[in-house]
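Practice problem: predict the structure.
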Amino acid sequence: MTFEIETENLQQSEKEIEEIKPEFSDVKPDLEAIKEAAEEHSRENLILIGNGGSVTSFRAFLYAFMPEIDADVRIVTTMEPDYLHRLSQELDPENTVVMPISKSGSTVGVLESLLFFMERDYPVFAVTSDNDGALRKIVQKRDLPSIEHPEVGGRFSGATETALTPAAFVGLDIDEIRAGVEKMYGKLEEEENVAYHIASSLHSAEKDGYSDILNPVYSTRLLGFQPLFIQLMHETVCKEGEGMTVYGDLGPEYQHHTNQRLFGGKKDVVPFFFRAETHEKRKLNIPEDFTDIGLRGRKLGDLDGIELSKSLDSEYQGVKDALSEEDMPRITMTLTELSYQAAGELLAFLQYLAVYSAKFRDVDPFTQPDVEKSKEIGFQERFSE
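Answer:
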């Protein structure tokens, strides 16, 4: 694998469940059609419009390879008029493609944002199902180019057209991403199923009173996987009074506030660290006239020549060691290779982790029964006086 998982002070659940093969793992995207669409319709700028699973997987890929992407990408998850207006001022229609993504085609906010840009003559390329949804009808009425959204729930569609289409539009290697996904799907059907074991540990921790998962991310390249992890765990697992709350921030920034909660608050938090061993090797150079400045009982000059990646790792090690001293639980995922295949592998792992976590709690992984009520109320509120 291109990442390693380490646990401490966690036990496997007393409960056992059958290992499974979710239907989404059998869905095969048409990679050639995606690449042909990208070659014909992509522009210098991409405005991606969507919510939840329509954007979370792509965001993970985008952040992972941001330094290598030449396109200017804006992800629109709100119909806030100030933000939409600002984008229209910054991005010229001639050099921009707007990509609304919606499986149902009836997500009101996506349609509102799309109509804002259509009114200003932005070219559109849509990703939506072949159904009776409003987005499909807009595509048909205006003869807009599009590609079909597979019949897979948004949060589990990251290895399909849903995320791979915008990925191709900004130049990512979708063949390699998909190869990593399929490689991990295969591994998770073998005896050493790491997703099963981590789900089992989290279930055991919840039964012992641990209600929260703190997700510190010690790599800006992995930060895009945090919203995906949160969505997968909340929407898949948190039903019928079950499931753990997931939250987090970039490390070491979170240490300056949430470590107080972790070590000084209720003992109900399992830290799940995301980190990487793939950082650039950049050494710190201290100006000669700064070397004698005092710092925590040492001299600033003592930092001369230290690699910044070591400094970052030292911040993580400090938290890790403090947790060990207090016999507190911990999970660490360490990326050992930065590649398109690695991104695909991590995506697939998180998908299976969520499904197994739901199965351990006897809830249906593929529903979201408590999401629609507020959407319907919000829609009707648009027409209230």
